[in-house]
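Session log. Operator J.P. requested a structure for one protein chain; no other inputs attached. Running the standard single-chain path with token output.
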Amino acid sequence: MTMYSRRNFLGMAGFAGLALNSPLALASNSKPKGSKILTLRNLHTNEKVSCTYWIEGEYQFEALQEVNACLRDHRTGDVAQIDPLLLDQVHSLTRNMEYSGEIHIISGYRSPKTNAMLNKTSSGVAKKSLHMQGRAIDLRLPKKQLSQVRKAALAQHNGGVGYYPKSNFLHLDTGRTRQWG
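Structure written below.
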């Protein structure tokens, strides 16, 4: 067993006090403040959810369940967990664009069955799409130019950004940072 002199003990306590009061430690000890709200409309089901999914640094379980249901696979009815980081990405995008209206959802979660069917009929659907993991969303922001939404999404340097101007939607995902379209 190691014995510490009073001087060693006080020296270590002083160092620990400095470490605990450093800006980095203070920042990590403080909880994020505020809330995050999204208003989503699934264009295939016309369902709308407006919820506060994050409050004071904590995701809200009931709100996330509402989002999961709204963003379900409309072809099969399958519901999956949507990655909360994807919601944060969408929230950040709307905040950066100073947009507070409905977010139109073209596609949220896709079951493997739906994804396989779409992959056979469209060249723009990946076989291992992040939609199947609840980590991707196809959306548009009404009254905002799609090119401007794309520009704002790319400026976030966060995940994948796919640009589909002919179909008038933007793809966002929580995969590695990349872009296409």
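Operator note: The chain has six helices and eight strands.
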